[in-house]
């Protein structure tokens, strides 16, 4: 949490009734942890064990993993955008320029045939 500069004041933490397998104990206690990181708006819920403390720790780990994945995705997206701009700015190959030139000349000839015939 220090790496991502997450403070405890930035977290909204709630404990919710557990559900699923684990017997009567899991269904009666509020051992599920719900975390919300207020600055980013990310939400994490965790119920890996019957212990509230273990679930608190696991939820914090999940939140850090989620933040790391999110920052990685934004970095990859910015790299992809830069590569796309570079690709679009590049000069076309010589062969492609020659083909474009031939096509342009062909269009020009077709248009010149549409002109009025002068006497």
Characterize the structure shown.
The protein has 119 residues and is an alpha+beta fold. It has helices at 24-28, 52-89, 94-113, and strands spanning 11-16, 32-37, 42-46. It has a single domain, classed as Double Stranded RNA Binding Domain. Helix content is 53%, strand content 14%. The protein has a three-stranded antiparallel β-sheet, with helices on one face. It is rod-shaped and about 100 Å long. The chain starts with 10 loop residues before the first strand and ends in a 6-residue tail after the last helix. The mean pLDDT is 90.
Task: Give the topology, please.
Layout (H helix, E strand, L loop, with lengths): L10 E6 L7 H5 L3 E6 L4 E5 L5 H38 L4 H20 L6
Antiparallel strand pairs: 1-2, 2-3
Number of domains: 1
Query: How many angstroms separate the termini?
Result: 87 Å
Low confidence ranges: none
Mean pLDDT: 90
- CATH topology call: Double Stranded RNA Binding Domain
For the secondary structure, the number of strands is 3
Can I get a quick summary?
With 119 residues, the chain is α+β, with helices and mostly antiparallel strands.
